[in-house]
Design goal:
single chain; alpha/beta; 2 domains; 4-stranded mixed sheet; two-stranded parallel sheet; elongated; binds flavin-adenine dinucleotide
Length: 185
């Protein structure tokens, strides 16, 4: 919005990318800020934020990042509940795949990344386990944690288009996509 150059505000935020917009949103909603300007020579969300793959996940190699992205995902969920469907939020998960039979180093890294929440890692060695295949929507129905699939029959049945020699799949469940442009709006 065009403003009188003499007008003053309590908070001036430089940059109307997704970070500036998110900071503005939480300053207003949670911290009672009523007078705020977002300053940018470009259209909102038109720079780096326009390039995003629009994916989110809570798996990272360090527990601090896992906690941080878990918190961030909870905030996304809150916004999605306020305006159901507007974010086009999905939760198919992230699948990390390898032809190695039992990638112990990757599994160790997974436990390290989840830290105290390592109980969320489920090792699936049988084709007849209660593993839930990916389901993008509604995101509320997706399980939490991570499934590590180490059984080729289970992998082939779940992902029939994948190469038959894929031997292990790390399926991070709290992960998916959103419309970043819609989120900014
Ligand atoms: C190819 C690609 C794929 C990505 N995929 C994902 C993904 O899947 N998931 C994910 O979470 N993240 C992803 N990211 C990262 C994510 O897009 C960025 O971290 C995020 O968009 C950064 O937002 P920002 O607001 O910090 O920056 P920007 O969107 O770059 O916004 C900064 C704004 O500041 C303005 N500005 C700069 N200097 C000034 C100034 N002096 N005065 C006024 N305004 C100024 C700019 O014009 C710009 O509009 C991806 C990034 C890229 C490049």
């Amino acid at each position: 919005m065009a403003r009188d150059s003499a007008q003053s505000v309590d908070v001036a935020l430089i940059g109307a990318g997704s970070i500036g917009i998110a900071v503005a949103y939480y300053l207003v909603r949670r911290h009672g800020v009523r007078s705020l300007a977002l300053i940018d020579p470009r259209d909102p969300l038109s720079f780096t934020s326009a390039q995003s793959g629009e994916n989110y996940r809570n798996w990272w190699p360090h527990p601090v990042m896992t906690a941080f992205t878990d918190h961030s995902t909870t905030l996304l969920e809150e916004i999605d509940r306020l305006a159901p469907g507007r974010l086009a939020m999905t939760r198919g998960g992230y699948a990390l795949v390898t032809r190695r039979e039992r990638p112990e180093d990757l599994i160790r890294e997974l436990y390290r990344g989840y830290g105290e929440m390592a109980g969320r890692v489920r090792i699936r060695e049988s084709a007849t386990c209660d593993y839930l295949p990916p389901k993008r929507t509604p995101w509320e129905e997706a399980p939490d944690g991570v499934d590590v699939l180490l059984n080729r029959d289970l992998i082939q049945r779940t992902f029939p288009s994948w190469a038959p020699d894929i031997a292990a799949v790390i399926h991070v469940r709290r992960a998916g996509s959103i419309s970043a442009q819609q989120l900014g709006r």
